[in-house]
Amino acid sequence: MVLMNPQLSVNVRTLGRTGLEVPEIGLGCASYWAQQYFPERRARAVLETALACGIRVFDTGSSYGGGNAEGRLGRLLREIGADPDSLLIATKAGTVISAEGRLLKDFSPSGITRSVERSLVALGLERLPLLQLHGPEPTHLTDELLACLERLRAEGKLRLLGVNAFAPGIRGATALDVFDVVMPFYSVAEPGGAALVDAAAGAGKGVLVAGPLARMVFAPPIEWLWRPQGIWYLARAVRHGIGPLLRGIRLRSALKYPGWSPAQLAMAWVLAHPGVSCAVFGTTDPAHLREVCAASGRALPPEVREAIAAVNGCG
After folding, report:
1. Could you tell me if residue 54 is inside a domain?
2. What is the CATH number of the domain that holds 118?
3. What whole-number distance in Å separates Cα of residue 1 and Cα of residue 265?
4. DSSP strand pairing (103-105 vs 128-134)
5. Does 25 map to a domain?
6. How many CB atoms within 10 Å of residue 93?
7. Span 204-247, pLDDT tens digits
8. Which H helix or E strand runs over 269?
């Protein structure tokens, strides 16, 4: 089954052993895009552009945007008239919003079941194409939880199962047959994710890459500051650690090549890994979305590969 129109621009890849072929670039429907103060008409313009570029993988989560992300994604896709059977809509469970607005973890079978039921309603779907556990540690992957996931799949409430987590959670999921997909972090600023991609692909898992553009930490400062969402994304990058941010700054000189933008080079670097099924990035700008999608199918210049390796200490 191919989840896109092959005449459109984004190339397709195999999603592990699932039997699906998916576009090699996907759209993250979270972060600033999901916030209520980001205008709905602009959020819709991003989705329309993604569909026009051949993107059919849309990644979201029940806790994203203060709980606004799933409802917005489902509503706008219906308004646009997108065929849900042609899409791989991925959502997440395991992170919940408390009454005080804090994010908490709940990987109990009852908590995951409630999350699935709410996601089905919010997205307007009869079955979740892909449910990913959001940030579990290996200790969360109990026999009771795995049995719950299999039950939900047997009931027809979800099709594929995955895990989006940091390295320990990804390694734990890679070792378990119940999971079809993993979603590690991997980018020019976090190259250590390559080992996770290798192991998961070797185990037959589909690999959706999170953060392939490293939150654009390699962009010149003026590109952060001329719009409110730029400041928002910069603050978010700082919260995720100073290491990738500093590495991103050092990568600025490496991510330069005639006929390419820095974002295109960063995306092409991720897609050069054969174990990657789909690299999922977020944006609020249709022009930026088209720019990044133009990296699909382009070979990374060897000079850029060598320059990135030198910055990351691999050269």
Report:
1. yes
2. 3.20.20.100
3. 30
4. unpaired
5. yes
6. 27
7. 999 999 999 988 888 755 455 556 666 655 666 666 666 667 77
8. helix 262-271
Half-sphere exposure of 226 (CA within 13 A, CB side): 5
Q: How many domains does the chain have?
A: 1
pLDDT tens-place string over residues 100-112:
888 899 999 999 9
Q: Which two tokens stand for residue 58?
A: 């849309």
The pair of structure tokens assigned to 105 is 């973890």
Q: Which long-range contacts (CB under 8 A, 24 or more apart) does 98-103 make?
A: 101/66, 103/63
- The whole domain housing 18 covers 12-214+276-298
Structural domain includes residue 163: yes
Q: Look at residue 114 and tell me if it is in a domain.
A: yes
Cα four-point dihedral sign 213, 272, 87, 97: negative
Cα–Cα distance measured from residue 183 to residue 107, given in angstroms and rounded to the nearest whole number? 17
Give the C-alpha separation, 238 to 220, whole Å. Answer: 15
Residue 101 zone, left/alpha/beta (φ > 0; ψ -120 to 50; rest): left
What is the value of pTM for the model shown? 0.92
